[in-house]
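Why run this: before we spend reagent on co-expression, it is cheaper to look at a predicted model of the complex and decide which construct boundaries make sense. The entries below are exactly what would go into the expression plan.
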Amino acid sequence: MADLASRITKPDEAAGAAPQVEDPTEGANSVGIVENAYDVEVKLADLQNDAESPLFSVQSFEELGLPKAINDGLLAMNFKKPSKIQERALPLMISDPPTNMIAQSQSGTGKTAAFVLTCLARVDLSKPQQPQALLLAPSRELARQIQGVIQTIGQFCENLIVQAAIPGEVSRETGVRASIVVGTPGTVMDLIRRRQFDVSQLKLLVIDEADNMLDQQGLGEQCVRVKGLLPKTIQILLFSATFPDNVHRFAQKFAPNANEIKLRHTELTVKGISQMYMDCPDESKKYDVLCKLYGLMTIGSSVIFVRTRESANEIQRRMEADGHKVSALHGAFEGQNRDALLDDFRSGRSKVLITTNVLARGIDVSSVSMVINYDIPMKGPGAGVPDMETYLHRIGRTGRFGRVGVSISFVYDRRSYEALSEIANHYGIDLVQLSPDDWDLTEKKVQDVIKSSRARPDYAPNALGN
Amino acid sequence: MQRSSPSPARSYDVSSPHRADLSDIFNQDRNSPARHKQILETSRKEHTRIREEAERVLQEARLREERDRVLEQRRKEEERIKTEEQLAAERVRLNALKAKKIEIPPLLPDPEPPVVPKVAPKPAPSTTAPPPANNLNGQQSNSQVNGASPFQSIAPPAQSSSSLFATKAPPGPTPSPTPPAPAPVPAAKPANSVLGIGALLNGNNTQTNGTTRIVGTAQAAAPPAPAAPVIDRYAEIHKNLKGLRKTMTEQAKVNRALKERMGDMRREIRKCMGQLTSGAPGVNRSQQQKIINLLREALANQVQSRLIDPSDYVFEPRQPVEGAHHNEPALPSLFIYLLNIFSKGAISQFINEASARPETADPVGVCVAATISEPDFLWRGKSMIDILLAKFRIVCPVLFGYRGSEKTEQGRARLGWWKDSGRWIGEQQHMDRMTGLGAGFAAISLRKFAASKKQNPYPARHYWTAMARIVNTPAAEISNTQCIVLKAMIENYEGKFIDAYGSAAIVALRTALIEFPARAPTKGAAVNSLEVLATLLKKNTGLTLG
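The model came back. C-alpha cells follow.
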C-alpha cells in the first residue's frame, strides 16, 4: 500500500479536472487554436444542466470509452474527472485514423496523463514484449517519472510491460522487451541502431517537454534522427507548457497535419500560484530570510532554485541545521545518484529540494506547495537576460493540478529587481512585495495573499489583451 | 571475583594465616603434610563460603524478580481498572448525551414526511431495538445522527465491541479480541443484509430527522442549521477559540514580552509541523521535542499571558482529579493559544499536504498523538484534544455524522464544503481537502499506545464510530464527500484498523467498501473508487472482502 501511495504522488500532473469546471467560450473537440481558457464558476443552480450542455461533452473518464482496467487505475489514484486538456485532447488522440497532435497547456494540468492514457488505449496487451509506443523525455528523471505514471494508471492492465530506455536500464543481452518504452533520445537512438529495440510495430511517438526537446541543438537533432528510424505512419504527439514561435513552426514540420491545442502566454501563469517576491537587504541575508519563510505558512514540500552548486550546498547545510530534511540535486550528481536523491524527495523522506536548473521542467511532486527562486532565472551571454520560460516552468512545480501553491522570488539588488520586473511585465502578473523586517506583518501578508488567490480561481490577467 | 565476594571482615580472617605463609615462606616445613592440610582446609572453607554467598544472592535475586512480577501485574491490573473506569464514565456520559438528544424530536415534524414516505411504519420497532444496544456499547455515540446501523448489527453481540475495547488496554491485547470476534462475524452477516440496511435505514431516517438535521431537498425550506448548534459543543469550542485568538492579539498589544515571543513561537510550531517526514522511527524527534518545549514554555508563562479557564475549550466540564498535573481552574492563555496553533497546523498540513499525498498525514498524526498526550499537557487528567476535534468538526463534518447534498447550498455547508470570499471552492479542491482530512483523522485515531505509559487521547473506537456514521447513511443521502472521506480514512490504514478490531474490522471494511458503494444511488467516480480500493486491497494485501 505504501508503495502505491508513493506512486500516487508522481503522476499528479494527470488527474482530472481543473478545479473549477469548464470553458464556455469554446466548443469541445474543436481543432485549432483555443484562444481563451477562462474557467467560469458553475452556479449551483446550473449543476443539473451540466449533462445536457454541449460544453460538457466528456464528464468522466468512463465516457471517453477507456477500458475498465484503465479507468480503475485512474480511480485508484484519486482521479475523478478529466482535466480540460484531457477532455479536449483525448478524444482527438484516441480517435481513428490516428492524427498527430501539438498540445500546449499549463503546468500541472494533466498533460502527462493525457498522453499516457493515449498510449494505454493504443497498446495491444496481447503482445506485451513488442514495442508499440515510444515516449521521449529530455531527462532521465522525467523518463522515470513518466514510466511510473504509466505503471500506476495501468496497474490493473494485465501483461503491461513498461521499460525505461535510459542509461543503465536496458540489458545488452535482451534489449528492449516491453510494449511501452520511455526514454531519452540518445539512449533510444543507440538501442535502435544496435538492433536491440524493434521499432517495426511502433504506433505512437510522444515527445514530452517538446519545446525543450526540439529547441536544443543536441536533443532536437536526436529527436529528428529517432523519428527517421521509425515507421512513417506513426502517430506523433507533442506536449509542452510553452511553445515559443520558432519551435512551434518546427513542431508543425515535425508532426505534420497535427491537431493543435494552444494557449496564449498571458494565460500561462498558473492560477492558484500566489507569486510574491522578497526584498532582501543584501545577498548575504538571503539565507536567514529563507529559513524564516518556512514559519509563515503551512508548507508541504518545497523546491528552491539556485544558480550555482556552491550555493546549493551551502543552503543545504544551513537548512539541515534548522531541522529540515533536504535533497540537493545538481549537475555534480550522476545517473542513479540523481535518481536516489529525487526518490527521497518524491517519497517524502526529504521535503526540501534544492536544485539548479536541471529540474525546472516537468518534474511533478504533487505536494510541493512552495517554490523559491533564490536566484532569478537568467539566460543568454553572461546570463544577462531574464529567462521567462524557465521562470514559468519553475513556478509550475507547485500548484499542481489546481492546488494552491506559493512562489517567492528573492531580489536583493537593482539587477535582480529589474530582471524580475521584466518577467512580471511579460506575463502581466502582479507580484506582491514581502519584507523581512517585521515577520508578524509579513506572515499576515502571506496569509492574505494565499487566501485571495484561492478566492479568485479564474485569475488570469487580461487573457485577451496579450 | 575474589575481591568482590568475600566480606571485608572475613577476608581479613582468612588472609591473616596467609600472611603468615608469606613470612614463613623460607621455613623448612613449608612443604610439610601438616602445612598442606592446613592450606587445603582454608581453601575448602573459602570455597564453601563463596558457594553459600552465591546461593544467597541467587535466592535474593529470585525474590526480587518475583516481587517485580507481582508489582507489574498489579500495575497492569490497576491500569485495566482505570481504563475500565474511564470507559464506564464515558459510557455514562454518552448515555446521558443520548438521552439529551432524543428529547429534541418535537422540533422538526415537517420535513420528515418527504424523506421517508414508505418506511414510516417500520421505525418504531427499529428505534426501540437499537438504542439499548447502543447503551450497551456506549461507544456508539453516533446514535444521535444515524442511530442504528449496519454497525449496530455488528454490535448486538455486545461482547464484540467490548472485546474490541480490550485491545486498547495494554495488558493482554491479543488474546481477548480474537476469541469473541468469530461470534460477531457470522452474526453480523445476516444482520447486515436483513436488519442492517432495511430496518436500520428506517431507523436512521427517524433519528436523523428527529434530532438535528434534515437531509435531501426538503431542507431548503426548513431552517435546520440553527437546530444543530444547540448541542454542537465542538462548534462552540471552535467559536471560543476564535475569540481566544482575538484576545491574544489584544494582549499582545499591551504585553511586550508576549508580543515578542508569541509570533516566533507560532511560526516555529508551524515550521516544525511542516518538517515532519515519514521514514524510520525517530526521524521527527527533534521537531517533536521543539514543539513540546514551546508548549512547556507557554505553560511556564514567563511572558505572563492572562490565565483563562480551559473549560471553554473542552467537550464537557471537568472536575479536579487526584494526581493530575494540572487541576487548577485556569491555565495560561498562551498555552491554550499554542495548542490551538498546533491543532490548526495539523489540520492545515492535512488540507495542504495530505490532500495531494495522503501518506504524509501519518507523521503528523503521530506528532499530534504524542504531543497532546504529554502528561503535563493534560488538564484534570484528560487531554486537550477537543481543540483539534472542534476544528475537525468544522472542516470535515461527515466524520461526525453530518450529511447533506452536494447540489444545494445548505447541503454543501453541512458537508464542510469550504467557501472563499463567498464562493464555493472548486470540486476537485474540495475532494482533495476531504482526502487529506480523512487520512488525517485515521492518522490520529488509529494510534497504538500499548507500549506507552501515556494515555491515548483518541482511541480507535472513535475511528469506528466515524466510519459507522458514514456507512450508516441512508442510501438516498449518500454523498461523494462521504465516499472520499471514507476511502481516505481506510486507504493505508486497513492494517492498523484490523490490528485494533480483528475480524470485526474486516466485516466493517466489507460494509464500507462493498456494501456501502453498492447501495449508493448514483455510481460516480467517488463511489466507484471505494470498490476499486477493495480490489486494490485484494491485489496488494490478499485481503478478500467481497
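The domain at 273-455 of chain A is CATH 3.40.50.300 (Rossmann fold). The first helix of chain A runs from residue 2 to 9. Bring this page to Monday's planning discussion.
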